[in-house]
Design brief:
2 domains; 12 strands
C-alpha cells in the first residue's frame, strides 16, 4: 500500500539516512543536499527556517518502507525555493508526479520561482525538470581541494575584511554576482567565527575578496564567492585569495576538504582553481521555473 504524506518529526532520522544514501550516487545526486545523514538532519531541523521542514517536505511509504522524499527550502525574501530531490528508489519512480503535486500544494503563495540542481548524471531528475517546464539556466562544475594536498600551498599575504572596505566589497560582489543567493550586504551580516571574507589591497586600494564558510563539525568547507577588480585581474591576486582562504580553512583540524562551484563555461576560472590544486568532483545542471500567478 502506497502512502504519500507531509513529513513529521519522527521521520527525520529515516529521511536523512535515505537522502544521504541516494545522494552518494551521482545517478541520484542533487547538489547542495549533502551526503552525511547527521549534517542533513541538522540542516533540516535548524537551517530550513522560512518554512519549517514539517511544512515543506513530503515522504512516500510503500508497505511502511520509505521509498521517496521531496521537499523545498524557501527564501521568502527572494520569493524562491530550492528543491530538495526528488529522492526516489529506482523501482518506485512512478510516484514522482504524485509527490510533486503534494509538495507544490505546500508552496507559500508568495513564491514566484523554483530552482533545481541535479547532477548531470542524474538523468531522471534532469528529464523531470524538462517535463515540468523548468528552463536550464547553466551547467555548474564542482571542484574540491583535499587537506592532504595542503602542503603544496604557497605562503601568501591576505587580510580580513574590515569596515572601511565594506562598501568596496559589496559593490564588487553585487556587480560580479547579480541576483546571487547572497547579496554583498547579506554576506557581511553572515560573518562569524566560521564565515569570513578575506581581501587583498594595494596601497589602500581594494583589489578583490573571497567569502568562505567552514563547517568543521562535518569536516568540510565551501568557497562561496570570490572576485577581483577588473583592473587587477591577471596579476595573481585570484590565486593569492584562493590560497590564503584555503590556508585559513585548514586551520580547523577537522576540515578534510574544501569545495567550490563555478559555471562550467568559465574555463579561465576552472584553470585557475586547478592551478591552485583543486580537482574536478562532479557537474550540476541548474534549472529554474517561474510560477504563473492567477489574478
Amino acid at each position: 500500500m502506497l502512502e504519500i504524506r507531509v513529513i513529521d518529526k519522527e521521520d527525520v532520522g529515516k529521511v536523512s539516512n535515505f537522502i544521504a544514501r541516494l545522494n552518494s550516487s551521482e545517478e541520484s545526486h542533487i547538489g547542495y543536499c549533502g551526503k552525511d545523514k547527521e549534517e542533513i538532519a541538522k540542516y533540516m531541523i535548524n537551517d530550513i527556517s522560512d518554512i519549517k521542514y514539517t511544512d515543506s517536505f513530503v515522504v512516500a511509504y510503500e508497505d511502511n518502507k520509505l521509498v521517496g522524499v521531496l521537499g523545498f527550502d524557501a527564501d521568502l525574501e527572494e520569493s524562491s525555493v530550492e528543491i530538495w530531490g526528488p529522492f526516489i528508489v529506482p523501482n518506485n519512480w512512478d510516484v514522482v508526479f504524485d509527490m510533486w503535486k503534494k509538495m507544490t500544494d505546500l508552496l507559500p503563495s508568495e513564491i514566484e520561482s523554483l530552482e533545481m540542481f541535479p547532477n548531470l548524471k542524474n538523468i531522471q531528475v534532469c528529464q523531470l525538470a524538462k517535463n515540468l517546464s523548468f528552463k536550464k539556466h547553466s551547467d555548474e562544475t564542482i571542484l574540491i581541494f583535499q587537506r592532504k594536498n595542503g602542503h603544496e600551498l604557497k605562503s601568501v599575504s591576505i587580510e580580513e575584511l574590515t569596515p572601511e572596505y565594506y562598501l568596496d566589497m559589496m559593490q564588487l560582489h553585487d556587480k560580479a554576482f547579480p541576483g546571487a543567493y547572497y547579496s554583498g550586504q547579506q554576506i557581511i551580516k553572515r560573518l562569524d567565527e566560521h564565515k569570513r571574507v578575506f581581501i587583498i589591497t594595494n596601497n589602500g586600494n581594494f583589489c578583490g575578496y573571497i567569502y568562505v564558510e567552514a563547517e568543521p563539525e562535518f569536516g568540510e568547507a565551501n568557497i562561496e564567492f570570490f572576485a577581483v577588480e577588473k583592473s587587477d585581474r591577471g596579476t595573481g591576486i585570484g590565486g593569492q585569495l584562493l590560497t590564503g582562504a584555503l590556508k585559513w580553512l585548514f586551520t580547523f583540524e577537522d576540515i578534510e576538504s574544501v569545495r567550490l562551484c563555478v559555471n562550467s563555461t568559465n574555463g579561465s576560472a576552472i584553470t585557475l582553481y586547478k592551478k591552485v590544486g583543486f580537482q574536478h568532483l562532479y557537474d550540476l545542471c541548474a534549472f529554474t521555473k517561474n510560477l504563473e500567478k492567477s489574478c
